[in-house]
C-alpha cells in the first residue's frame, strides 16, 4: 500500500460516485451528472473510467485494463500501475480472471460472465451532441424520447454513402427507451452489449456523466428495416498470429514497402489462442 | 361542426413590454386566417403562442385534436405539444434557415418528421420525400443536395414540403414570402394556394404583405400595438376598412 486512501479518491468522493452509479444502473442508458474530480492524468486519458473504477474497487478485486483491446499500451499500463500502487489490488491480463475490467475502445473477445464489471472510458457521452449543440435541448429530447434526429443522421449516411457509414460509437437504444452512445467501441462490438451478463459502466470525466447497462439489458443498434445493422469490421481476414477469423483485427504496418499484417486487437484473446495451440502440439 | 382552433383571451407580455393582449378568434376546419399589422404589433408573438413556442401569460388555445377532441394546448404537457408539432401542426418560418437543417440533405429534411413519428424504412421515407419535392416543384434529382445549394425560393418550398409531409391539419406561417423577389413570391403564393385548397388545410398566416392575405386568407385580423383592432372577411376588411389604422395600412400600399 501507499500513503493514498484506498483507490486514490477519498471516501466522500467515492460515495458520491457510487450514488451516481446506482442511479445510472436504475435508469439504464440515462446519463447521470456527477461532480468529476481532477485525476492525476490528462482529460482524454480515461479520467471518467478511472473514477468509476476507483468507486467500484474493493481490496479483493482483480483488475484488468485494456486500451484498444491491448493490455500493453501506454494508457493501459499506466492505469494498471496506478491502481496497483494506490489500491494494492491484484492485476491480471486474463479476461476471465478479472473482476473489474477498465477498457478504452473495445469489449474483450472472451465472453464476460456474471459478477464481472466492465468500465468504459467515454470521451463524449451525448449521442446527440453533433446533431444538436444545446445541452438543454438534448436533455429535453432524451426526456421526451424525441429521437427522430438520430435517425436523420443514419438516413444521411445511406443517402451519401449507400450504407450506414458509422463504424464506431454506433448509437444504441437501451431497453427501448434511451438512445445511448456506447463510447467509441467499433460497431463490431455492439452485439456484445446486448444481454451481457456483466455490469457495464460508462464514465465520462471531462463531461461529468456516468451511465450504465445493468446485466441482461436489451441493447439494440439503431438501423432501418431495409438497411439493417451490420456488425462489420474493416478487414475480412484472419489474425496473422492466432488465425482467429471471428475477432476484431488491427492493421499493423511491418515495413516501408507496403508490408502489413492483421492481428487481433485483443492481445489476451490472441495470446490465449496461441498458448492453447502450443499446448495441443506439445 | 367543432372549430379546429378556438383562442380565448390570449395575452403575452415581455415584462413591461406588451406582446399581444386579449386576443380572441375561432378558426374553422379548412379556413385560412390572415393576421396583418406593422412590425412590433404582436403578430409573431401571437403566432408563437398559438404554435406552442411561447407560453402565453393568460388565455386558452383550444385545439380539436384528432383522437381526444377539443383540448387546451397551453395546459398540455411539453411531450404532447411536441407530438402535435410534428404531426398535426406545421410551422413555416420566414427565414428558411430557421426551419430547415442546412447541413442535412433535402431528402433528410423532408424525412425528419416521418422518422420522428416512427418511420423506419429507408426506401419508403425516400420515396415520400421525392414525392413531396415534386409537389413543391423541386427536381427529384436534387433529393441528396443540401439546402444551402438551393435558391431562396427553393429553400422556402423545401421548408413547406418538410412541414406538410406528415399531413398536418393546421399550418402556421410567419411571413412565408418575406425576403423573396416578386416573381418568386408569386410562384410560391400560387403553390401555397394550390396546396391549401387541395389538402383542405387550415392555416394562420402572419404577414405585413396585404397582397398575400388577399390571395390566401378567407378572414383577416388587423393588429396594432398588441391589440386586434379589426377583423372580418378579407375582402370586406381590405375594401372597406373601418378602423383608422386599417385605413392607413390599406392606403399605404403602392399601386403598381
Q: Per DSSP, what share of the residues of chain B sits in E-state strands of 2 or more residues?
A: 25-35%
- Summed up, the helix count of chain A is 7
Which bin fits the share of residues in helices of chain B? 25-40%
Strands side by side in the biggest sheet of chain A: 1-9-8-5-4-2-3
How many beta-strand elements of chain A?
Answer: 12
Number of structurally distinct domains of chain A: 2
What's the β-strand tally of chain B? Answer: 10
Helix content of chain A: 25-40%
| Mean model confidence by pLDDT of chain A | 93
Largest sheet of chain B: 6 strands, mixed
What is the molecular shape of chain A? globular
Number of domains of chain B: 2
Overall mean pLDDT of chain B stands at 91
Order of helices and strands of chain A: HEHEHEEEHHEEHEEEEEH
- The helix-and-strand class of chain A reads alpha/beta
- Biggest sheet strand order of chain B reads 6-7-8-3-9-10
Number of helices of chain B: 10
CATH superfamily of the largest domain in chain A: Bacterial phosphonate metabolism protein PhnH
Low-pLDDT segments, ≥5 res of chain A: none
CATH topology grouping of the largest domain in chain A: Rossmann fold
- The CATH topology annotation of the largest domain in chain B reads as Rossmann fold
What are its keywords?
heterodimer; A: Rossmann fold; 2 domains; 7-stranded mixed sheet; 12 strands; 29% helix; 18% strand; B: 256 residues; alpha/beta; Rossmann fold; 4-stranded antiparallel sheet; 10 strands; 39% helix
Structural features, described:
Chain B: GO terms for molecular function: ATP binding; ATP hydrolysis activity; lyase activity. Chain B: One of its GO terms (biological process) is organic phosphonate catabolic process. Chain B: Keywords: ATP-binding, Lyase, Nucleotide-binding. Chain B: Pfam families: ABC_tran. Chain B: This is Phosphonate C-P lyase system protein PhnK. The complex is a heterodimer of chains A (282) and B (256). In chain A, helix 1 packs across helix 2. Chain A is globular and about 60 Å long. Chain A folds into 2 domains: 172 residues, Bacterial phosphonate metabolism protein PhnH (Rossmann fold, 3-Layer(aba) Sandwich); 50 residues, no CATH class. Helix content of chain A is 29%, strand content 18%. Chain A is α/β, with parallel strands linked by helices and 282 residues long. In chain A, the strands form 3 sheets. In chain A, strands 1-9-8-5-4-2-3 form a 7-stranded mixed sheet. Chain A has a 3-stranded antiparallel sheet with strand order 7-6-10. Chain A has a two-stranded antiparallel sheet with strand order 11-12. The N and C termini of chain A lie far apart (41 Å). By secondary structure, chain B is an alpha/beta fold. In chain B, a hairpin with a 2-residue loop joins strand 1 and strand 2. Chain B is built from 10 helices and 10 strands. Chain B has 2 domains: 170 residues, 3-Layer(aba) Sandwich (Rossmann fold), CATH 3.40.50.300; 66 residues, no CATH class. Helices cover 39% and strands 26% of the residues of chain B. Classes of the chains: A alpha/beta (282), B alpha/beta (256). Chains A and B meet through helix 5 of A and helix 2, helix 4 and helix 5 of B.
